[in-house]
């Protein structure tokens, strides 16, 4: 290979890395040395007082990063009289308040320690990883130096986030359009090994007998879901665990549940009945280390999506509004 063509090969091979290289592992080493300690202390106390925080934050992070504008904390912005924000789109209304509260707590502590220095998007990325590890999930390096976005519109959410009632092809498309392989998509769905699902998402406002006609459900499990969710039309807050076996632990039990008909959502069963995704469900169910390896790699990949650095974004003083 000629030296000039070798140079171009190197350039194109490393270009994605170069473009992310403005993010570094020790971005706040000088400007905010307390960064990691404040994140860890706040995450720990919040998770102990509200054990649903971890799953809520992982979901918030996924919903923020998958949107076209990427990991820029635009999902944290509140609506204004002139514009409805991403967080007020129907699909995001079920995002639990614990995740938003956690970010506010961390931001408040960091603003006292090092004002106008740490972005809300970095707070979300770092706290998600820390919570994952607290639940027993895999650790991975979080690169820092993101800026916060200044645009958030509800209209930009449509068809960019997976919904339980979507066909599997549609859900796969959402992830492949963002650069994920089917294997990585299935691994990311393994986040359902923790957290809750609202009953209204399971029964989808149709007749409660619906899930009995769905061959994906274990019949006794379908009965138990109907009992647990019996009053969901009068009480929209009714929820069930995504993983009934080890609901508070990040493990591969979600994948072990699917072949037994113990998936909560229609899309969970879709993963096991679709030939494109089933082999990965089987592999991750048999080998937790393999699931953790692919999940960690996919989360790190997710954390780089649409990252803004330098003048392309700002450091918000408050995470729910632009400066």
UniProtKB/TrEMBL annotation:
Site features described as Transition state stabilizer, chain residue numbers: 59
Disulphide connectivity of cysteines:
32-114, 65-71, 120-319, 199-229
Cellular component GO terms, alphabetically?
extracellular region
- Residue numbers binding Ca(2+) 1: 64, 70, 72, 74, 86
Task: Provide the residue positions that the database annotates as binding substrate.
Answer: 162
Name the UniProt record assigns to this protein: Peroxidase
UniProt-listed Enzyme Commission number(s): 1.11.1.7
Give GO MF terms, alphabetically: heme binding; lactoperoxidase activity; metal ion binding
List, for all copies, the residue spans of the domain called Plant heme peroxidase family profile: 22-323
UniProt-annotated binding residues for heme b: 192
What this protein needs as a cofactor is: heme b; Ca(2+)
């Amino acid at each position: 290979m000629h030296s000039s063509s070798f140079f171009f090969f190197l350039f194109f091979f490393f270009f994605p890395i170069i473009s992310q290289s403005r993010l570094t592992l020790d971005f706040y080493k000088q400007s905010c040395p307390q960064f990691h300690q404040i994140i860890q202390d706040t995450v720990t106390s919040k998770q102990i007082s509200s054990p649903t925080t971890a799953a809520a934050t992982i979901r918030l992070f996924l919903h923020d990063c998958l949107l076209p504008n990427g990991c820029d904390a635009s999902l944290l912005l509140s609506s204004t009289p002139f514009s409805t924000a991403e967080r007020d789109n129907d699909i995001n209304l079920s995002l639990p308040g614990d995740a938003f509260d956690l970010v506010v707590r961390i931001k408040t502590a960091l603003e006292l320690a090092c004002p106008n220095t740490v972005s809300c998007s970095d707070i979300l990325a770092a706290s998600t990883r820390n919570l994952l590890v607290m639940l027993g999930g895999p650790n991975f390096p979080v690169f820092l130096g993101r800026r916060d976005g200044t645009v958030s519109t509800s209209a930009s959410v449509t068809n960019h986030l997976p919904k339980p009632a979507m066909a599997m092809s549609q859900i796969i498309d959402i992830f492949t359009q963002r650069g994920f392989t089917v294997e990585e998509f299935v691994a990311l769905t393994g986040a359902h090994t923790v957290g809750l699902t609202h009953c209204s998402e399971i029964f989808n406002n149709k007749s409660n007998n619906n899930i009995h006609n769905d061959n994906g459900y274990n019949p006794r499990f379908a009965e138990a879901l109907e009992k647990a969710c019996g009053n969901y039309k009068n009480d929209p807050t009714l929820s069930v665990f995504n993983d009934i076996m080890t609901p508070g632990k990040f493990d591969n039990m979600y994948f072990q549940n699917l072949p037994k008909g113990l998936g909560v959502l229609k899309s969970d069963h879709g993963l096991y009945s679709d030939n494109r995704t089933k082999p990965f469900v089987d592999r991750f169910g048999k080998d937790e280390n393999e699931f953790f390896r692919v999940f960690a790699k996919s989360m790190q990949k997710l954390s780089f999506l649409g990252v803004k650095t330098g003048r392309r974004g700002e450091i918000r003083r408050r995470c729910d509004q632009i400066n």
